[in-house]
Design a protein that fits this description.
Layout lengths: L13 H15 L2 H21 L13 H6 L12 H4 L2 E4 L4 E4 L3 H8 L21 H13 L3
Antiparallel strand pairs: 1-2
Helix pairs in contact: 2-6
């Protein structure tokens, strides 16, 4: 083999070998950790729906006057019947977490639809504003991978 490399042999370092083997074993199936992250994301997203803010903490665009009239003054954004918020879900597997909504209009609100005058109101994503989802996700993963 061309280039430079080193080879590390861990003979006689049973504690280190045991720790590395435990770490590999704990990381082989992330389903429990990813399920816990999925539950956390449900809570995080529900909280943001209450605040009516995007993942970056910016407020959602207010409802248009014609929408307010149609809703008879009800001014809660993206929460007419609560389906968008309440039907968020996740699917965790060994090494993947899928999170979101299979409602067709979820994409319309997440990305907006200019041709129909529907503004973007991003609701899916990891927060970087008032709280930081990354910190909680990292803590969950660290707890899962922790070696005893």
């Amino acid at each position: 083999m061309a280039g430079a490399f080193i080879q590390v042999k861990l003979k006689g370092h049973t504690e280190l070998v045991t720790t590395l083997n435990q770490l590999i074993k704990n990381g082989a199936d992330l389903t429990p950790a990813l399920s816990q992250i999925g539950e956390y994301l449900l809570e995080s997203h529900h909280a943001r729906f209450q605040l009516e803010v995007a993942p970056d903490g910016t407020p959602w665009e207010p409802l248009a006057p014609e929408t307010l009239k149609r809703k008879k003054g009800e001014d809660r954004i993206l929460q007419d019947k609560g389906y968008l918020r309440d039907l968020l879900s996740y699917e965790a597997s060994i090494n993947q977490l899928l999170f979101g909504s299979n409602l067709e209009y979820a994409a319309t609100h997440q990305f907006g639809r200019e041709e129909d005058g529907i503004v973007q109101r991003e609701f899916l994503g990891l927060t970087s504003g008032p709280w930081n989802d990354g910190d909680e996700i990292l803590a969950i993963l660290q707890d899962h991978l922790q070696v005893s």
